[in-house]
Specification:
The chain is α/β, with parallel strands linked by helices and 477 residues long. It has 3 domains: 48 residues, no CATH class; 193 residues, Spore Coat Polysaccharide Biosynthesis Protein SpsA, Chain A, CATH 3.90.550; 153 residues, no CATH class. Helix content is 30%, strand content 20%. It is built from 13 helices and 19 strands. The strands form 4 sheets. An 8-stranded mixed sheet has the order 11-12-13-15-16-17-19-18, covered by helices on one side. Helix 6 packs across helix 10. The longest helix has 29 residues. The radius of gyration is 29 Å and the shape is elongated.
């Protein structure tokens, strides 16, 4: 065969191969059965050239979750907003935080002009029409639950997580972002918190997220819930509790609550300093019901207290309320620091296992004749000078030249019950100020608490506490 004939054969063969390849690709793309698996080569080809979809693009992106991926829906009323707006403004970041406030009626009087420090507002959909459509027994419940769909409808572009709360919810957004970044937003998640009061969970459900504390829906769950909203409100038009209705609708989608310890409904009354001084070892995400408890700092009203707490949070949310315990063995003292909130000194060496239980300074949410009252362990207030702490509250915060954060805590009042005489203990009554030095870096991985060292000269009215990582074999007792 001549070289000309050989080249002609090769050319024809190439043409046949190319045509065959084109026909095969065309068949795979347009005619393949959805139940049949094509090769990875052509699967990737189809995926690469599939039409662009903004939502799938969000789901497939490798960008870490940040604040722009969270949308907040705040459910409120025009009447209550006059007194509650400071709670939301304490954590809302204008032009950064996404979402809006859903009001029942247009704002008026002193709410106008609308504050630039508040979330933008929208008016809820016509409840009368929704009641007529769903035959729901409770218009308020219907408005609150339907509000989830309304927020999603308005701001789902680029959404990964939908966060719903009340007009007196205080969110720690940086911590929320850091927690949610650990989860796959393309999967179905329903995050929330239980009530602290056992009977509230019993009356409503142990499987629901309490709305005032905030609950969080991943994008696919929020989308599915919004799509089924009207049908679900029709199915459960006899329910007269919004959070239970939400949980029930989500359960029908096939998803259940994943509780997070840092989400707090605060179904408590009175002085909650004991609760806030012994926070569980998890990032603080929310607090609620500030109208129902005493101001959390002495000599401040509720609004001032929240802004004061958020002042510490603006420096380091990861350590907010995190309890760190250390001992001054030469004096037989135990220090317990709730970062950004309080400090306690006990005139006896106490183990962490005992100190971590909150002092029951608070009262039950409703009358409860017999214990247990709470979803956590407590210890009773004591007048025993070896068990009752000297109490200090957060005063100020600053960053030092050594890349540390200095928080200062000052004595709330004299303890006034004498010194602990156990093993010759020394009184701490003269200590009036505690300085706490912590690293100016986030501490998101908190599988183990931090430890600390105490620097105090006998007779000085000030004590320094320096944070550090615990040693491998260190025992806090």
């Amino acid at each position: 065969m001549s070289s000309f004939d050989k080249s002609k054969v090769i050319s024809i063969s190439k043409t046949i191969l190319i045509c065959g390849l084109i026909l095969y690709i065309t068949f795979i793309i347009f005619f393949s059965d959805s139940n049949c698996q094509s090769s990875q080569l052509f699967s990737s080809f189809r995926s690469k050239w599939a039409p662009f979809n903004s939502q799938s693009n969000v789901a497939q992106t490798n960008i870490a979750t940040n604040i722009s991926h969270l949308v907040f829906g705040i459910l409120g009323s025009e009447k209550a907003w006059h007194n509650r707006k400071s709670y939301i403004e304490s954590w809302w970041r204008p032009n950064i935080t996404r979402g809006h406030l859903l009001l029942d009626f247009p704002p008026k009087d002193d709410l106008l002009p609308w504050s630039i420090n508040s979330p933008p507002y929208k008016i809820s959909d016509n409840v009368v029409k929704l009641v007529a459509e769903t035959k729901h027994v409770d218009p308020t419940v219907l408005r609150l639950v339907h509000g989830i769909m309304e927020v999603f409808r308005e701001e789902h572009e680029g959404l990964r997580w939908l966060v719903m709360g009340d007009d007196d919810s205080v969110f720690f957004v940086d911590n929320m972002v850091d927690i949610l970044a650990q989860y796959d937003h393309t999967e179905y998640y329903y995050f929330g918190g239980h009530s602290e009061f056992i009977l509230s969970n019993y009356w409503y459900s142990f499987n629901q997220g309490f709305g005032g504390a905030g609950f969080i829906l991943s994008y696919p769950l929020a989308k599915a819930l919004a799509k089924d909203m009207i049908n679900c409100l029709k199915r459960y038009n006899y329910l007269n509790a919004a959070d239970k209705t939400t949980m029930t609708c989500i359960a029908d989608i096939g998803v259940n609550l994943s509780p997070l310890q840092g989400i707090h409904q605060i179904d408590l009354r009175g002085n909650i300093s004991g609760f806030l001084s012994s926070h569980p070892k998890s990032l603080l995400m929310s607090l609620h019901h500030f109208d129902m408890v005493d101001p959390i700092f002495p000599s401040m009203d509720r609004s001032q207290s929240i802004f004061h707490l958020l002042n510490a949070a603006n420096y380091d949310q990861s350590r907010m309320l995190q309890q760190t315990i250390c001992h001054k063995r030469s004096s037989n003292w135990t220090f317990s620091i709730s970062w950004g909130y309080s400090a306690h000194i006990y005139e006896k060496i106490m183990p962490r296992s005992w100190i971590q239980r909150p002092i029951e300074t608070f009262k039950t949410w409703q009358k409860s004749p017999n214990p247990p009252h709470y979803m956590f362990d407590v210890r009773n207030p004591s007048l025993d000078p070896c068990e009752a702490p000297h109490i200090f509250f957060f005063k100020s915060i600053e960053k030092t030249p050594r890349n540390e954060i200095l928080t200062t805590y000052i004595r709330a009042r004299p303890r006034g019950i004498g010194a602990c005489l156990y093993a010759g203990n020394l009184s701490a009554e003269y200590v009036s100020e505690i300085h706490v030095f912590s690293p100016a870096i986030k501490r998101i991985e908190i599988d183990r608490c931090e430890c600390c060292d105490i620097i105090h000269e006998a007779g000085s009215n000030k004590a320094d506490v320096k944070y550090r990582e615990c040693k491998t074999d260190e025992i806090i007792a």
